Amino acid sequence: MPDKKWIPQPKRPRTPIPEQKPEERRRNFKEVALGYTAELAIQEAYRCLQCKNPLCVEGCPVGIDIPGFIRHIGEGRFEEAYYTLKKYNFLPAICGRVCPQESQCEKFCIMGKRFKPVAIGRLERFAADYFMESGKKEDFKIDPPSGKKVAIIGSGPAGLTCAGELAKKGHKVTIFEALHKPGGVLVYGIPEFRLPKRIVDIEVENLKKMGVEIKTSAIIGKLYTIDELLEEEGFDAVFIGTGAGLPYFMGIPGENLNGVYSANEFLTRVNLMRAYMFPEADTPVKIGEKVAVVGCGNTALDAARTALRLGAKETHIVYRRSKGEIPAREEEVQHAIEEGVQFNLLTNPIEIIGDENGWVKALKCIRTRCGEPDESGRRRPIPIEGSEFEFPVDTVIMAIGQGPNPLIQETQPDIEVKRWGIIKIDEEGRTSKKGVFAGGDIVTGGATVILAMGQGKKAAQAIDEYLKTGKWA
Amino acid sequence: MYLIKEIKEIAPKIKKMVLEAPLLAKKHKAGQFVMVINTEKGERIPLTIADKDPEKGEITLIFQEVGKSTIEMGLRKPGEYIYDVVGPLGRPTHIINYGNVVCIGGGVGTAPLYPITKKMKETGNYIITILGARNKDLFILEKEMESVSDEFYQTTDDGTKGRHGLVTDELQALIDSGKKIDLVLAIGPAIMMKFVSLLTKKYNIPTMVSLNSIMVDGTGMCGACRVSVGGVTKFVCVDGPEFDGHQVNFDELLKRQAMYKDMEEIALKKFLEELKKKEPCGGCHA
Ligand SMILES: Cc1cc2nc3c(=O)[nH]c(=O)nc-3n(C[C@H](O)[C@H](O)[C@H](O)COP(=O)(O)OP(=O)(O)OC[C@H]3O[C@@H](n4cnc5c(N)ncnc54)[C@H](O)[C@@H]3O)c2cc1C
Ligand SMILES: Cc1cc2nc3c(=O)[nH]c(=O)nc-3n(C[C@H](O)[C@H](O)[C@H](O)COP(=O)(O)OP(=O)(O)OC[C@H]3O[C@@H](n4cnc5c(N)ncnc54)[C@H](O)[C@@H]3O)c2cc1C
Ligand code: SF4
Ligand code: SF4
Ligand code: FES
Ligand SMILES: [Mg+2]
């Protein structure tokens, strides 16, 4: 390898990523960010100092060799960059797009101290896209068959990663997915304009090429229980990656009025069921002229921006805390503002008001101010007395968070759960039931793609160990 | 993909479809339903498993052609495939020996009622069945229901069969006759279940209803199916579909069922127009 000298260019401004113009993209579902070209990627790569003690790596939940893959990009060895990423991250094209980089890898990047951090996520995305578009076949090294069978429940990032890692070790893997398409939140939740479904499809196809079997429309707890998988269907181990799909509502009056959606329902209708094509596709969705989305996480912004794209005249975010507490990715907030989403911060809904036919006509809110930090470390919103006001809207989308889907826990009471039905695991990813592991949102509550993947990978190692030794605890 | 073994009209605009689905036939319990996606661009619609044959690996769906999806499904032919079916969903009916059980079926609600009644009978209950329809031609599963009933009554809106009146009239007559009733189980249009529940509440007769709210996933992931039961929000697909009729807010359910009326009409109109273009002779579905 011609290891030419790396001369970083830290003074260069962070390379912007080409994007669709806000006025165009706010009405279409095409991806917002177009991605770096090879030249732009190389240019950005050279901003990296190639630190001996790279702080960025500490910020990445899966510890990617960030200087390593960036160097490959800088030297034009894009394929190598991809394989370096793949060693740590099963889904780089996805994480490059959706990781909250500003609070992870890029937050720690030394360049951020004086200038702007290296665009690690964008480079990651570039390397992955480059490989996908090159049409090259991925080189999977698969161990000889072990004769062991593993069932993976759920095909979100946790399940997909766990499946891939186990397939590499030669185990026979079957994924059971409740919905009719695999991908979890990546397909039913995150919209096309942030994460093209094509990318998820390619990853799923890759898994199939590795010999993983995917059974869609197969709900564990209904079609089979976990006991049946272990005792009757011949599986040696089970991984639960069922996510946090249960939508929370606020419990305020009027939430069951027509025109009130959970973000999950709204996004599922549009993404999974393709309601944006109605009546070409059969599933309808209602978009009013004026839409209020309650909450300010990624889910809320996805719903708000989707509503705009489907023709809403005005879309409002209603969030009870202040700017500093917004949990969504920074880039998405920026994009949403550019597209015209209006932010009503320090505002908390207290009632949804309906008309005589049972349809939403207004959202009653109260203003709040920031109080002392609460358990989550965020400043608690305190309602300001007498500040109630009504806000005319015809659609309300609740995006205040999600809990674990209860189906598994109901049918498998011997798996220990913590508060709100979150499955309890040890450091290895083992549940309280022998042979059963878990990871992703089902053990953390709604978190991130990269954390779910990281746990899927970790559990895969423990499962492999268990399959080889038969040792439990 | 699920193979259609058989499809036939069993009453005007009511079709019976037998699907090859061995696993579902094996796993299904009375009271459970499936989500059906007819075509690749289809919506997910809930339909109750009306009957099953685990030996042959078949399930039977009985559906009324009310809109785009059900009419399109009704046009399918044996040998074709249904795009996807997922289940069995919902909690199975809690079936024990209650004593005297009145099973009330309204319209196509008789389809979901049948497997439950059968099981109730097998469990030793004394079964009094009341089936209601607009006219005599609209009854389904009459023989099947009669065969699992100890007493069997019918009502029609126009008096063409059985009592001229509503199922609630027959139920009132039963109550007035002093018959001991331990449980009423009512499945039919929401409006029927509402009035049955109002009546039984007066007499404090435990009443179970099976709700048909609009659904998307059917697995507890979206909340489209939510209803208020005893003032608490429940998801019909995972907490139900059966609930205590005295606790259900039927007016809310009725409103929510109409949420997409205008769009459903658009979808149906478009579908029928395209159908006419394809087979100009058959305006029979208009
Ligand atoms: C709208 C939205 C936007 C988001 N944006 C971001 C973002 O920008 N960046 C980021 O990092 N994170 C984001 N997240 C969070 C992230 O998507 C999740 O943390 C991640 O998907 C969790 O992965 P998982 O594999 O644990 O579960 P999921 O992705 O939820 O997948 C679980 C799968 O299991 C299936 N399942 C459930 N129960 C059963 C059962 N009983 N049998 C069979 N299958 C079952 C489900 O149908 C689902 O497909 C977002 C979430 C949402 C909802
Ligand atoms: C648990 C459950 C079990 C059911 N079992 C049966 C059955 O065994 N046989 C039968 O004929 N019908 C059954 N239904 C009702 C059936 O799902 C609807 O008639 C069907 O979805 C109508 O679809 P459509 O496109 O033909 O009509 P549309 O014109 O789209 O709708 C007609 C009406 O059906 C209801 N509906 C529409 N979409 C849905 C949906 N996604 N989910 C639920 N309801 C909807 C609405 O109230 C609507 O006004 C059941 C419903 C539920 C919730
Ligand atoms: S996986 Fe996420 S956190 Fe890790 S380097 Fe990539 S973008 Fe950063
Ligand atoms: S901390 Fe920043 S500059 Fe240093 S190696 Fe990581 S990305 Fe490069
Ligand atoms: S249909 Fe989605 S939660 Fe019941
Ligand atoms: Mg329909």
Automatic annotation (TrEMBL), chain A:
<feature type="domain" description="FAD/NAD(P)-binding">
    <location>
        <begin position="148"/>
        <end position="456"/>
    </location>
</feature>
<dbReference type="GO" id="GO:0051536">
    <property type="term" value="F:iron-sulfur cluster binding"/>
</dbReference>
<feature type="domain" description="Dihydroprymidine dehydrogenase">
    <location>
        <begin position="25"/>
        <end position="135"/>
    </location>
</feature>
<dbReference type="GO" id="GO:0016040">
    <property type="term" value="F:glutamate synthase (NADH) activity"/>
</dbReference>
<dbReference type="InterPro" id="IPR028261">
    <property type="entry name" value="DPD_II"/>
</dbReference>
<dbReference type="InterPro" id="IPR036188">
    <property type="entry name" value="FAD/NAD-bd_sf"/>
</dbReference>
<keyword id="KW-0560">Oxidoreductase</keyword>
<dbReference type="InterPro" id="IPR006004">
    <property type="entry name" value="SudA-like"/>
</dbReference>
<dbReference type="Pfam" id="PF07992">
    <property type="entry name" value="Pyr_redox_2"/>
</dbReference>
<dbReference type="GO" id="GO:0004355">
    <property type="term" value="F:glutamate synthase (NADPH) activity"/>
</dbReference>
<feature type="region of interest" description="Disordered">
    <location>
        <begin position="1"/>
        <end position="25"/>
    </location>
</feature>
<dbReference type="InterPro" id="IPR009051">
    <property type="entry name" value="Helical_ferredxn"/>
</dbReference>
<dbReference type="InterPro" id="IPR023753">
    <property type="entry name" value="FAD/NAD-binding_dom"/>
</dbReference>
<dbReference type="Pfam" id="PF14691">
    <property type="entry name" value="Fer4_20"/>
</dbReference>
<protein>
    <submittedName>
        <fullName>Glutamate synthase (NADPH/NADH) small chain</fullName>
        <ecNumber>1.4.1.13</ecNumber>
        <ecNumber>1.4.1.14</ecNumber>
    </submittedName>
</protein>
TrEMBL record, chain B:
<protein>
    <submittedName>
        <fullName>Ferredoxin--NADP+ reductase</fullName>
        <ecNumber>1.18.1.2</ecNumber>
    </submittedName>
</protein>
<keyword id="KW-0001">2Fe-2S</keyword>
<dbReference type="InterPro" id="IPR050353">
    <property type="entry name" value="PyrK_electron_transfer"/>
</dbReference>
<keyword id="KW-0408">Iron</keyword>
<keyword id="KW-0274">FAD</keyword>
<keyword id="KW-0560">Oxidoreductase</keyword>
<dbReference type="InterPro" id="IPR019480">
    <property type="entry name" value="Dihydroorotate_DH_Fe-S-bd"/>
</dbReference>
<dbReference type="InterPro" id="IPR017927">
    <property type="entry name" value="FAD-bd_FR_type"/>
</dbReference>
<dbReference type="InterPro" id="IPR001433">
    <property type="entry name" value="OxRdtase_FAD/NAD-bd"/>
</dbReference>
<feature type="binding site">
    <location>
        <position position="222"/>
    </location>
    <ligand>
        <name>[2Fe-2S] cluster</name>
    </ligand>
</feature>
<dbReference type="InterPro" id="IPR039261">
    <property type="entry name" value="FNR_nucleotide-bd"/>
</dbReference>
<keyword id="KW-0411">Iron-sulfur</keyword>
<dbReference type="GO" id="GO:0006221">
    <property type="term" value="P:pyrimidine nucleotide biosynthetic process"/>
</dbReference>
<dbReference type="GO" id="GO:0050660">
    <property type="term" value="F:flavin adenine dinucleotide binding"/>
</dbReference>
<dbReference type="GO" id="GO:0046872">
    <property type="term" value="F:metal ion binding"/>
</dbReference>
<dbReference type="Pfam" id="PF00175">
    <property type="entry name" value="NAD_binding_1"/>
</dbReference>
<dbReference type="GO" id="GO:0051537">
    <property type="term" value="F:2 iron, 2 sulfur cluster binding"/>
</dbReference>
<dbReference type="InterPro" id="IPR017938">
    <property type="entry name" value="Riboflavin_synthase-like_b-brl"/>
</dbReference>
<feature type="binding site">
    <location>
        <position position="225"/>
    </location>
    <ligand>
        <name>[2Fe-2S] cluster</name>
    </ligand>
</feature>
<dbReference type="GO" id="GO:0004324">
    <property type="term" value="F:ferredoxin-NADP+ reductase activity"/>
</dbReference>
<feature type="binding site">
    <location>
        <position position="237"/>
    </location>
    <ligand>
        <name>[2Fe-2S] cluster</name>
    </ligand>
</feature>
<feature type="domain" description="FAD-binding FR-type">
    <location>
        <begin position="1"/>
        <end position="95"/>
    </location>
</feature>
